[in-house]
């Protein structure tokens, strides 16, 4: 027991720790709820979950809930009933120290670095669409003392050997920016998660005679075929190759007006987007397949230029209401998720992303918690002092749990969703030296039946939580099982694999489907609230009415005697007060307690306070 004979200053400094030791989780069981599904858009109440309302919640109890498939939205906790819901949602995590970034994730980091050091140049297209572009936002973020000019690429013979890679990255970013423009103009539907563009250089021996101006062809991209495939998944009436040609022609027309700062001509050819050199290549250039690209100045005296450098600051703060964050959230929800302004209110924002039942635990420097402590936080990303993104996270004894991310739509070309995920993974790695138990990064729910949620598996090596035994199973194993059916007891993988060994293999789509990860935590469908659910007392084992006694089959009965009941300000074990209820009341309460134990587990059911009034 703590020594009560302390100085006033000692008592003050340790009061938070003492309060934490005495704190308790107090929840109200909302029970089974049905709602419409934001993932499959079924149109009926096919999403089935169990809900809890948390008045308070210790970080240890919430960690345990996460490891049983629960998530939170504000103070509301929910868990899919995996066997019955339309889109089974599997908790996904990765061990931060084992994380291996993919090529695309590495490109995101490099793109951000080029943006910060000033070498990323995205053509301003304000004149065409009348909205903020990458160039205009870059000017707003830039220090006043900086002067920007277009990046000049002169004769490739005098450039570093990596110039070809820089041009490929530049053209890829340019296409991605044009795709965003098409979305903003309504030419592409905003609800589709489009793949990222990939541009490749064309070696002389790979040039085909049937390609127009093949001898000048230096770069090509097949992104139009991938975009057409994404459109077909939503609009079944869309055709095949003809549509890829149409998409390529649309993108090429936008690229023509967005790429005036490079000496490359852009044409659509058989569904491909081709980039041609407009100058006569030298024999050396023809051999390596490099373009001659220039702008201004003579070839012997290239124009000098200054680079705008940006300053990125990342701050971690306790979850509180911040007007600047709210304005960024409004902008994000309206422009990215197409919410109406009257839907994005201050109160809804607070309920969703500010309110938290987690009881803050202050670090005492003994390695039991990171320096920031445990609890709910907002991780702010600021460029030159301006807020551009906010990651809403919970920091718990074993993990950083990523809840949501919102970002400035004007900086979509930076893929801030992917970038923030990489930063959060890195934060976990660095924090292990302070708190060894903090090892994992939780990405929320993985829904294999929903294409736009599959991007989470790109953070490797990840694990999925078995919905029955709550064991962690490698994603590589789980994916093969989930390719066959949406609900699987993953811990039975050994038996299931033997059964599936005779089935033909399914191509691994994760490597080919490069979905934008602007939430892990970005999907608005993960926003839940108590009011979003409708009562559904339709359990097969229930028959509840004012004069009806609920019968619980013996095989489904749990030991509920040690559950602590919160009643009229008192906390008493159920076994000590059950005689205070009449037969019908007692049977009904025991029925609810049985479901509660099934949902949260025996240990947690005896640790948390089950409030009934």
From TrEMBL:
Compositional bias per record (Polar residues), positions renumbered to this chain: 130-143
GO MF term (any one): arginyl-tRNA--protein transferase activity
Catalysed conversion reaction: an N-terminal L-alpha-aminoacyl-[protein] + L-arginyl-tRNA(Arg) = an N-terminal L-arginyl-L-aminoacyl-[protein] + tRNA(Arg) + H(+)
Listed Acidic residues bias regions: 529-544
Domain N-end aminoacyl transferase N-terminal: 35-107
Pfam families: ATE_C (PF04377), ATE_N (PF04376)
Keywords: Acyltransferase, Transferase, Ubl conjugation pathway
Group of enzyme by EC: transferase
Keyword Nucleotide-binding in annotation: no
Region span, Disordered: 1-25, 119-143, 529-552
Annotated GO CC locations: cytoplasm
EC number(s) given by UniProt: 2.3.2.8
Function: Involved in the post-translational conjugation of arginine to the N-terminal aspartate or glutamate of a protein. This arginylation is required for degradation of the protein via the ubiquitin pathway.
Entry's family note: Belongs to the R-transferase family.
Protein name as annotated: Arginyl-tRNA--protein transferase
């Amino acid at each position: 027991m703590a020594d009560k004979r302390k100085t006033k200053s000692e008592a003050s400094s340790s009061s938070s720790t003492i309060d934490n030791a005495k704190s308790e989780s107090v929840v109200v069981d909302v029970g089974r709820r049905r709602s419409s599904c934001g993932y499959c858009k079924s149109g009926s109440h096919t999403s089935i979950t169990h809900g809890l309302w948390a008045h308070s919640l210790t970080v240890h109890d919430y960690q345990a809930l996460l490891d049983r498939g629960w998530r939170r939205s504000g103070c509301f906790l929910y868990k899919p009933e995996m066997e019955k819901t339309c889109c089974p949602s599997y908790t996904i995590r990765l061990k931060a120290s084992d994380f291996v970034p993919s090529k695309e994730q590495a490109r995101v980091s490099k793109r951000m670095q080029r943006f910060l050091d000033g070498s990323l140049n995205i053509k301003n297209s304000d004149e065409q669409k009348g909205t903020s572009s990458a160039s205009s936002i870059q000017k707003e973020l830039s220090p006043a003392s900086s002067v920007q000019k277009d990046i000049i690429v002169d004769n490739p013979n005098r450039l570093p050997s990596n110039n070809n890679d820089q041009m490929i990255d530049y053209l890829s970013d340019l296409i991605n920016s044009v795709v965003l423009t098409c979305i903003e103009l309504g030419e592409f539907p905003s609800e589709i998660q489009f793949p990222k563009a990939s541009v490749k250089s064309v070696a002389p021996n790979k040039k085909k005679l049937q390609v127009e101006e093949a001898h000048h062809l230096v770069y090509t991209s097949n992104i139009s075929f991938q975009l057409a495939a994404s459109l077909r998944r939503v609009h079944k009436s869309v055709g095949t190759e003809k549509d890829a040609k149409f998409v390529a022609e649309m993108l090429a027309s936008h690229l023509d007006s967005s790429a005036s700062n490079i000496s490359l001509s852009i044409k659509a050819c058989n569904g491909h987007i081709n980039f041609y050199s407009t100058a006569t290549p030298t024999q050396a250039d023809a051999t390596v397949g490099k373009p001659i690209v220039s702008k201004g100045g003579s070839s012997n005296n290239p124009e000098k230029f200054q680079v705008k450098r940006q300053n990125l600051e990342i701050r971690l703060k306790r979850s509180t209401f911040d007007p600047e964050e709210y304005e960024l959230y409004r902008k994000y929800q309206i422009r990215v998720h197409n919410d109406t302004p009257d839907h994005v209110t201050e109160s809804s924002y607070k309920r969703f992303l500010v309110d938290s039942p987690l009881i803050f635990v202050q670090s005492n420097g003994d390695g039991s918690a990171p320096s920031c402590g445990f609890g709910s936080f907002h991780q702010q990303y600021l460029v030159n002092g301006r807020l551009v993104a906010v990651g809403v996270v919970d920091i718990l004894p074993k993990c950083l749990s990523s809840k949501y991310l919102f970002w400035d739509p004007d900086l979509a070309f930076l893929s801030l969703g992917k970038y923030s995920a990489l930063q959060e993974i890195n934060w976990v790695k660095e924090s292990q030296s302070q708190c060894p138990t903090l090892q994992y990064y939780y990405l929320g729910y993985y829904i294999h039946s929903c294409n736009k949620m599959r991007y989470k598996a790109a953070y490797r090596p990840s694990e999925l939580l078995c919905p029955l035994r709550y064991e962690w199973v490698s994603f590589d194993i789980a994916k093969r099982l989930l390719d066959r059916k949406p609900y699987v007891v993953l811990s039975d993988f050994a038996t299931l694999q033997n059964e599936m060994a005779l089935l033909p293999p399914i191509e691994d789509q994760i490597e080919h489907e490069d979905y934008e990860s602007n939430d892990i935590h970005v999907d608005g469908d993960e926003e839940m609230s108590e009011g979003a659910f409708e009562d559904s007392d339709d359990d097969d084992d229930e028959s509840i009415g004012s004069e009806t006694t609920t019968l619980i089959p013996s095989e489904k009965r749990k030991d509920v005697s040690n559950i602590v009941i919160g009643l009229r300000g008192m906390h008493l074990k159920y076994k000590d007060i059950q005689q205070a209820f009449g037969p019908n009341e007692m049977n009904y309460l025991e029925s609810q307690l049985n479901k509660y134990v099934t949902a949260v587990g025996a240990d947690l059911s005896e640790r948390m306070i089950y409030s009934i009034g």
